[in-house]
Amino acid sequence: MKTMTKLMGVGIAAFFLTSGSMAQITIDTVTVGNPGNTADSTGFGAVGYSYAIGKYEVTNTQYAAFLNAVAATDSYALYNTSMGSEAYGGITRSGSSGSYAYAVKSGYENKPVTYVSFWDATRFANWLNNGQGSASTETGSYTLGGVTNPVNNTVTRNGGANWVVSSENEWYKAAYYDPTLNSGTGGYWEYPVRSNTLGDNTAFTATNSANYNDGDYAVFNGAGTDGALPVGSYPNASSYYGTFDQGGNVWEWNEQIYANDYRGKRAGSWVDGYGLDRSYSDPSRVATYEDGSYGFRVASLAPIPEPGTCAAALGAVSLAIVLLRRRKA
Predict the structure, then answer these.
(1) 23 CB-side CA count, 13 A
(2) What pTM was computed for the model?
(3) The domain at 2-328 falls in which architecture?
(4) Which residue, 270, 291, 296, is CA-closest to 218?
(5) How many CA atoms lie within 13 A of 286 on its CB side?
(6) Nearest-5° angle of CA 141, CA 304, CA 4?
(7) How confident is the model at residue 149 (pLDDT cuts 50, 70, 90)?
(8) How far is the C-alpha of 212 from the C-alpha of 202, rounded, in Å?
């Protein structure tokens, strides 16, 4: 059910092109199977295919790598200065436009990145989809056109997209669905921790707790202000498929288009006492919104090869190179 996906772009060729020039970040994913499940009473959750989704929210370390790769000038406002100046942000910026450099604040490495808009999330997905490094942020999974707020909020994922911001149904299914409920016919938990009740937000070893309603940061760290916790801080509180923090920690963007320029949001956050349950009735926010309680996770739609399959593919490529050299000789 669980798998670690090495982000090598869209194929083996991308690995050979980029691996020698820049280190690749990794996204730990879980597989969401049971395709063809029905929606719940809210109308959400039905997905007709298997896919992978981030086990955790995208972290400051991962997002800082993205910034250092593509935002030396930061033409698309991928960095919000509150990331550096506010206690809820985890990334600092130095230098001047054209030579900006980004660093993660000490102690914030595994906390979810915050102060990111929906459009920041789609550009991150494009970068993953295109092979990382200096890859384009404007095409790939989404066609963004080089503007920070695409006109009319009509952008949807492109055909053949691999790394994406999850759809609302993909996010919802990963959080709440459990195929073993109702005598094996499948059903939905109220909270994304395989429970219909939510535990104390300071009970870090409990199976149904989450970072919500303030208070957790000080308990976890011994001092300081409220805020997001390192991803996976409740190691026993996961969804059926093995995701963490889909309830609380930070609000997470999804692709759903709502009225005007609003996009989907789910999960609740460290500051809220609402939004963690599947019956939440206001799951949207203007797409350009950035705040210390907003982050995201990504999903992958491409088949994830088993280790033996990957090794065989690499062997085939190596054999092809040898044969090509012999032919030239």
Answers:
(1) 7
(2) 0.85
(3) Alpha-Beta Complex (3.90)
(4) 270
(5) 5
(6) 100
(7) confident
(8) 9
